Amino acid sequence: MTTIVSGADSQTLAAALARELDVSLATAEYNRFPDGELLAAAPDFDDDRAIVVASTVSSDAHIELLQLQDAVREAGADEVVTVLPYMGYGRQDKAFEAGHPISARAVARAISTGADRVLTVTPHEEAVCEFFEPTATAIDAAGRLAEPLPDDLEDPVFLSPDAGAIELAETVRDAYGDGETDYFEKKRHSGTDVEITPSDVDVAGRDVVVADDIIATGSTMSESVSVLQDRGVGRVFLTCVHPLLADNAVTKLSRAGVEAIYGTDTIERPMSDVSVAPSLAEHL
Ligand code: R5P
Known about the structure:
- D-ribose 5-phosphate binds at residues 188, 212.
- Helices cover 25% and strands 24% of the residues.
- It is an alpha/beta fold.
- It is globular.
């Protein structure tokens, strides 16, 4: 039998997955010692197969995941499957400067030590799956991003803010069933300073859905929206798999005049309208 154990930041998705798979959900406890150290535990876990669901949205979430993997093994699990709905540090997948770490590899190695199998949702680059041992399974949730879009989009364009996300935009368009696709070019100057060079796609009076894997600071999206508005766009909808929405991203995007922001429950935010639970369940 299987029991699901959730990290503190993935409780809604873990519950949805338990319903989807019709398996039980263990109680998990998340405590902190006076010196700041964490203690995540699954006191009533008693099964031979565990699915630990934890988005590593912070360094604490990483530690918590390692502790839960260890706790269920200690409690007798023969198989520990780890579901990383959002893989933190996944974007640092190369040593970009001399002396820098490949952080994605470092965290993947640590997580692999406690897992027989790892699944992750739409990693920034699929190659990060190879940092896990055995190689992690990447689940593509992009097709689900069409679900909350209004069905009256006016002559829609599905746009990615950079060439790397064009396939994602195409997947959303295919799932929506109608519309053109295009992409902008992006140059990143710093964590929050990005420069968007538009394509010559005609967006005047048309509804545009800008699709990306992650919205982090919102800089990529807000620059894209500003370029679209200069060209007389109709409504602008933003969609992403991982709504990280760090710092003041929501305010920044609201001020940019977007109609709506949609994301999935890989990261639990008020705009996590789409659940990836059915996509994960197909692989569990
Ligand atoms: C990077 O290439 C990703 O696909 C996203 O475009 C990026 O993470 C978004 O970051 P931000 O919201 O901080 O601009």
